[in-house]
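Exercise 7b. Backbone tokens:
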């Protein structure tokens, strides 16, 4: 999910398409909206009854009346389940106490029930034994409380298209605000039906296929949506408004000419259609692209779709995303969730990376492979700068931080989304083999489809598929915090190119060192360039290679493959190896003496590791520099003599 809540950093145009579709958004909708809501609505930590874990959900059937102008909901939910405890004598569901439960039936028997502390407990007339199935039916009504984007149900009015719209957003804990359910990620229902009754002027969108439209008395209509794919509780949804249906088709190569329905519910005006048609049509290209890279679109037997709403972003409801518009970045991100979040769902909210990091990297892949041109570099540069804006923070969310009053930690856009996406980019760089990289994706999808996975499950697939142990990488980049900082010097003697790298860390108490490859681009004096990789195996590393040309200059990772900060980059022609120039003493505390071999004019500079000149001087044959006024540390001394520049590191102490 995404939210265009912060800055448009760049406005460019490619292929005649409006560049506003391709703006970098620092904060995703799924991050910002959740943070916005929960910061203003502090609630108790999640407490779930152990009775919820006495049964396994097989099927949900929601049969409810909804409106485009109010959040009021009434109807019933049928839950078909299997007992997994020794016996079930009390049936429990989660449902906020401000909603009204009218009755509960178990296997057609009316049950007494208790509804408090946002849970509901039905007392069974006789126990149901382990492995036995049962059908529970809960009748209810009420108006979910107001409070923000992720408040269960929200209604709004679009003044541009003069349309009322109501939609749901249940992630992470708010399905229970509008229907009785079991909010346990690992217990996906095997299938779901969502029947939505509304005014006949409206259309109501939901999961799966629209199997029937039933005309009812009093100008009402019931939309009957059915899905036969496993689904997590928070991905069940509805959106209702005066919609038109604009449907197109994708044709992934794997289907050999067969197609996937893309069903778009947009506001019923020609202007809305014309404004969004390019983005909707491009969805087919994206489905085909990601079906090739990731595996076939997981829900191809049913559909992919969008429901337009005043959500200021998007939410990846399974097979029918709810969103505010059809820009490339938003559509790609939510579509990416079809594989990462919907088909394979995070096993716990601590593992949110396997949802949001992967969907965010899908943003990048859309920029790389669809937008093209300079867009991939713009995206990556903005992301690097955003992550480097703070020195610490881990992608991993410790379980004790998964709380109602700390939901912003789960959906931290800098960490869960963007640093998580760069983890994948760096894995891709380490492998240096796109076929192998995307084979990891395919194997992960195949192994955990229709189920849930942890971040360490992905690590296992990564290690097994590639034959490389990435455990150290996850220790650094997933569980660790911060990023590496580099001070780099290079020199060339004849054909020998040498590089000296010193690495420190932004959060040294937590992650003091990052073992990693770093790309370096060498610009040669014959007008060509070449890129090499050096391995930072220790905090101080040395790399050398033979090059049959002179190096004019170098750049560290100009294509932004790895997360890092380069504090200093210095080309060194060492004074110590040149008999024409002598410097002493080194280390130095007050007076630094510079001698040249012959009586000739020379200039001297002392430069700090940030590239700033802190002291200058000149002389003929000899000069003395008073360095007592500069701070202690390492500096670069340069001497310009006879059209050449000689350099040496000095230590001021």
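Sequence design result:
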């Amino acid at each position: 999910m995404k939210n265009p809540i912060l800055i448009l950093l760049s406005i460019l145009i490619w292929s005649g398409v409006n560049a506003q579709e391709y703006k970098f958004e620092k904060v995703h909708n799924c991050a910002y909206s959740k943070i916005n809501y929960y910061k203003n609505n502090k609630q108790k930590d999640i407490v779930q009854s152990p009775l919820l874990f006495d049964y396994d959900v097989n099927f949900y059937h929601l049969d409810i009346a909804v409106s485009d102008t109010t959040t009021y909901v009434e109807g019933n939910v049928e839950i078909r389940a299997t007992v997994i405890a020794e016996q079930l004598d009390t049936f429990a569901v989660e449902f906020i106490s401000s909603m009204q439960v009218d009755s509960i039936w178990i296997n057609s028997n009316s049950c007494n029930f208790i509804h408090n502390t946002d849970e509901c407990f039905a007392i069974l007339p006789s126990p149901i034994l382990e492995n036995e199935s049962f059908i529970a039916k809960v009748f209810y009504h009420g108006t979910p409380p107001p409070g923000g984007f992720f408040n269960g149900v929200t209604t709004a009015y679009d003044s541009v298209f003069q349309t009322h719209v109501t939609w749901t957003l249940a992630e992470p804990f708010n399905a229970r605000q509008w229907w009785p359910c079991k909010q346990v990620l690992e217990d996906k229902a095997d299938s779901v039906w969502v029947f939505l009754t509304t005014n006949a002027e409206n259309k109501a969108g939901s999961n799966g296929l629209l199997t029937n439209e039933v005309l009812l008395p009093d100008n009402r209509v019931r939309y009957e949506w059915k899905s036969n794919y496993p689904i997590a509780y928070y991905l069940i949804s509805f959106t209702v408004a005066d919609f038109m249906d604009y449907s197109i088709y994708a044709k992934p190569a794997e289907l050999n000419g067969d197609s996937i329905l893309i069903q778009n519910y947009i506001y019923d005006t020609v202007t809305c259609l014309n404004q969004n048609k390019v983005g909707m049509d491009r969805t087919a290209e994206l489905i085909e692209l990601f079906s090739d890279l990731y595996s076939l679109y997981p829900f191809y037997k049913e559909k992919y779709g969008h429901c337009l709403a005043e959500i200021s972003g998007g939410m990846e409801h399974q097979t029918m995303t709810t969103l505010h518009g059809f820009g490339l970045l938003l559509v790609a991100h939510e579509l990416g969730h079809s594989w990462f979040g919907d088909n394979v769902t995070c096993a716990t909210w601590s593992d949110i990376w396997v949802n949001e990091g992967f969907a965010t990297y899908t943003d990048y892949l859309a920029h790389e492979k669809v937008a093209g041109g300079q867009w991939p570099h713009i995206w990556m540069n903005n992301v690097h700068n955003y992550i480097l804006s703070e020195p610490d923070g881990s992608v991993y969310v410790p379980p004790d931080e998964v709380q109602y009053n700390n939901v912003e930690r789960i959906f931290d856009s800098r960490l869960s989304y963007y640093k998580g996406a760069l983890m994948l980019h760096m894995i891709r760089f380490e492998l240096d083999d796109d076929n192998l990289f995307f084979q990891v994706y395919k194997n992960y999808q195949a192994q955990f489809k229709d189920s849930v996975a942890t971040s360490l499950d992905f690590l296992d697939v990564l290690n097994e598929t590639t034959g490389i142990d990435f455990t150290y990488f996850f220790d650094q980049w997933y569980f660790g915090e911060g990023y590496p900082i580099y001070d780099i010097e290079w020199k060339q003697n004849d054909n020998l190119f040498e590089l000296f790298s010193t690495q420190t860390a932004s959060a040294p108490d937590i992650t003091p060192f990052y073992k990693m490859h770093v790309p370096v681009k060498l610009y040669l004096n014959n007008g060509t360039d070449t890129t090499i990789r050096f391995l930072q195996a220790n905090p101080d590393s040395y790399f050398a290679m033979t090059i049959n040309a002179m190096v004019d200059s170098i750049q560290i990772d100009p294509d932004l493959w790895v997360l890092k900060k380069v504090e200093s980059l210095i080309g060194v022609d060492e004074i110590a190896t040149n008999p024409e120039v002598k410097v002493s003493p080194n280390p130095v505390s007050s007076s630094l003496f510079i001698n040249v071999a012959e009586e000739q004019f020379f200039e001297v500079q002392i430069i700090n590791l940030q590239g700033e000149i802190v002291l200058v001087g000149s002389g003929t044959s000899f000069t003395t520099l008073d360095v007592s006024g500069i701070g202690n540390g390492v500096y670069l001394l340069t001497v310009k003599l006879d059209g050449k520049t000689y350099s040496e590191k000095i230590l001021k102490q």
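Instructor comment: The mean pLDDT is 90. Residues 270-293 form the longest helix (24 residues).
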